[in-house]
Amino acid sequence: MFIRQRDILTPEEVLSIDKEILEPLFEKTWFDYKPGDQFFIIEQPETPYVIESTMLDEDYHYILIYGNGQKIIYSDAYPLFTTGMLIECLSLHHAFILHSFGNGWIVLWDSMISIESEKGELLVSFLWRALIEIEKSGTFFW
User: Fold this and answer.
1) Environment class of residue 72 by beta-carbon count within 10 Å: exposed (0-12), middle (13-18) or buried (19+)?
2) Segment 105-139, tens digit of pLDDT
3) Contacts of 20 (CB under 8 A, 6+ apart)
4) Which of 24, 48, 49, 57 could be 66's S-S partner, Cβ–Cβ 3.0 to 4.6 Å?
5) Exposed, middle or buried: residue 118 (CB in 10 Å: 0-12, 13-18, 19+)?
6) CA-CA-CA-CA torsion sign (113, 111, 106, 9)
7) Are the CB atoms for 39 and 48 separated by under 8 Å?
């Protein structure tokens, strides 16, 4: 039987991180939603949505448009990062190397931090954990 590996974070993974870590992390990665990106509403994490477009309202709030024209303010939603998005975030400010070995991975970040995957950990989950560990270390930004 073939088991498909997922390539996107779950709302549970995102919400397992304190807001005091998440919000500065989103700022430091210069995260910006694009059409096609997935997100969830913070107060309703059970349902992921896909962004159709973005806009600024008359009060200069950044608005996400999803689900056939529904709108939500950016600050009421959290992104669901894909593996590719996490690789972009990790490589944004410093040198980043991802090595595979056997059934796992190692991240080498800025020649200072080395993080190894846990047994059976999905790549997307590992990269998320690595990004959070780097942010907690205080070395993420220049």
Assistant:
1) middle
2) 999 988 788 999 999 899 999 999 999 998 888 77
3) none
4) 49
5) exposed
6) positive
7) yes
Taking the model in full, what pTM does it have? Answer: 0.87
Nearest alpha carbon to residue 37 among 3, 96, 86, 4:
86
CA dist 6 → 27, 53, 87 (Å): 25, 24, 15
Helix residue ranges per DSSP H, 18-122: 19-28, 83-91
Place of tokens 């990062």: 81
Strands (E) across 1-80 are located at 38-41, 44-56, 62-66, 70-73, 77-79
Residues 82 and 125: beta-carbon distance below 8 Å: no
pLDDT in tens, 40-96: 999 999 999 999 999 998 888 899 999 999 999 999 999 999 999 999 988 887 888
**pLDDT-based confidence at residue 141 (cuts at 50, 70, 90):** low
Quote the crossing angle between the two packed helices 83-91 and 123-137, to the nearest 10°. 30
